[in-house]
Structure formats: structure tokens, C-alpha cells
Sequence to fold (279 residues):
Amino acid sequence: MEIIGVIHLPRLPSTTIRSERRIEETIDQAVKEASTLERLGYDGVIIENYGDKPYMKRVSDPLTIASLAVITREVVRNTSLKVGVSVLRNSGREAYSIAVASGARFVRINSLVETLITDSGFIEPEAPNLRDLSVNYPGIEIYGDILVKHAVSLTALSRYNYLANTILGSLVMGYTLSEMLRDLIQDLTERAFVHKIIVTGLKTGSPPNPGLVAAVKKVSDKPVILGSGADPSNIKNYIKHIDGVIIGSYIKRDGKAGNPLDENRARIFIETVKNLLKK
Fold:
């Protein structure tokens, strides 16, 4: 069971917007939080530009990308954790490049094979744009979301509605939600070459339906990661169907995403998971 904590960064510097704090302060805070999670027994962390709301579909500002690379590199250098990068909203190329340059070991990408409607606009699949990078610089694990939070999947909707409600659908003896999940997962694994699949709820801090997680696990030949909404009271509902968990909101002060790490909450969560695994 892989337990990964999220380092929610404040607004980062860019060529158009000043940061909320000096880059040195952000580095120190990120390293401090990562070191605390390492001491508590967490397996890894994701460095995420959470404070850069509202999110651009793709981050292209050179100062923001450089800042993320420097922060990530310092966390890699100062801990032995498995470090990952997430560049919201769907900057997969940038995240992968940062991982290569910083020594991070994985990236999280919200949309690899799905077209999404989001508050950032229409987001197209990132997998084709990663092809050359992943071939030339292999070794970075790709964690890909399916039906990601804060979004509606046009790919899933159109595929399901077309095949379930048309003549073609009747010819293939109907098209179930389970089959739709199977097809999306096959696209993720066979076309986008993901290493792990992330399942989330509808928004940050919101857990997915346990039935959805179980359904994904049933048809996936890749490890399944619970990607949002986990806490000590509900993790028991997922533990049999997941291979890992990404925990962000609960382990922050007052359980609010974007707040500093709360060591006591982080300790309670990992102890709860470890106790469940012993049963």
C-alpha cells in the first residue's frame, strides 16, 4: 500500500503575478512538510501548484515552471521519499520535464485520454504530447486520473450515450458503465502507458463512491490509487480495492486543502491505514 501526501504550494511566481512569498520560504516549507511526512512513515509526496488558482489549462510561464523545478529538486535532495509532480490543470509535458530535471520519480496527470469540460475550459488528452518525452527520458512513472474531479468527461459521456442508446449499441448487446470504465482503462494502459490509475470524487476533498473504486479495480490490471477525499473514518471502505492513496485535504490544518500540514492529523491518518492493513 503506497501512501502519498500532497504538498500544496502557495501561489508561485510568474512573469505576470508576484508570489505570495519568497521562493526560499516556499522551498523551506515544502522540505519541512515532506520531511515530517517521511518521519511519520509516508512513502511519497506530490508537489502541486495548488495555490495558482484559477488554473490555466496548461502552465507555460517560464518563471512558474522554473520555481516548481527548484522546489521539487530540493525536496528530492533533502528526503528519501518517492517524489512526484502535479502541474494543474493538465500540464503533463511540463510536469514530466520537471520530474526529469529534478530527479522526481512520478507525475500525476488529470487527463491523458479523455476530453474534459472544466472550469479551465476544454481540456484535451495529454498522452500524445508525452510520447517523445517518455521515449527519450524513460523511467518516470505516470499516474493518470480517470473521470477526474472538477470536470465532466466528454469522452466517457459520448462513448456511453452513443453505444448505450443507438443501433450500434444494440448490436453489441448493450453497453454498460462497467464496459465504459474498462474501455477508458484500456486506453490509459495501452495508449497512454500509465503505471497507476487514480480515482477521485467530484471535487477536492470529496471521496468517490466506493462502488466506483471497486469497479475500476475489477477491470484494471494496473494499481488503483484513491485520489481524493480519504480520511480516517472512510478509508476502511476503500482499503480492499486500492493499492495506494493520495492524501491532501485531511492532513492539512483544519482539514482544508491549501493549509499547512498538520502533523497530528497526518499521524492519525497513516496509523489508521496501517492498522487496517494488519487486519
Summary: The chain has a mean pLDDT of 94. Residues 9 and 26 are 7 Å apart (CA to CA). The two ends are 14 Å apart (CA to CA). The first strand starts at residue 2 and ends at 8.
